[in-house]
Amino acid sequence: MITLASLIVFLAFYTLYYTSKRAVLSYDFGFEKWMQQNPKQTKITGLFLLATAYAMWLFTKSLCCGTLMFFIQLMTVGSLIIILTPLKKVNSKALLAILLFVAILEFYYN
């Protein structure tokens, strides 16, 4: 559940990042170009994903712990996206490998 919430936080921040006018954007995938051309729908989608991830954190943890973990994760993911996306270090294969590794660890230790 925490891995899924982490993935949703990443997707939410990534969609909101692509609505920025000052960001250095690359169009490796078709949905990235769509996100840049439709900022209103992308912002609504990003905010909905953030609310969903926050609700998942609240469901998994308590109110205070879930809120704290959500904001820590949001700051961490946001910083990594802002730093690594212009360098083109964020690709789908690396993200999938990291997600699978973290999911296996989560299921193993729970």
Could you give a quick summary of the protein structure above?
The protein is mostly helical and 110 residues long.
Structural account:
The protein is an all-alpha fold and 110 residues long. The chain has helices at 2-17, 30-37, 39-60, 63-84, 92-109. The model has no long low-confidence stretch (mean pLDDT 87).
Q: What's the helix and strand layout?
A:
Layout: H1 2-17, H2 30-37, H3 39-60, H4 63-84, H5 92-109
- Please describe the biggest sheet, giving its number of strands, its sense, and whether it closes into a barrel: none
Which regions contain 5 or more consecutive residues with pLDDT less than 50? Answer: none
Report how far apart the termini are.
Answer: 11 Å
* Strand fraction: under 5%
Question: Helicity level, as a percent range?
Answer: over 70%
State mean pLDDT (0 to 100 scale): 87
Number of strands: 0
> Could you say which structural class the secondary elements and strand pairing correspond to?
mainly alpha
Principal-axes geometry comes out as globular
* Rg (CA only): 14 Å
| Pattern of helices and strands | HHHHH
Count of alpha/pi helices: 5
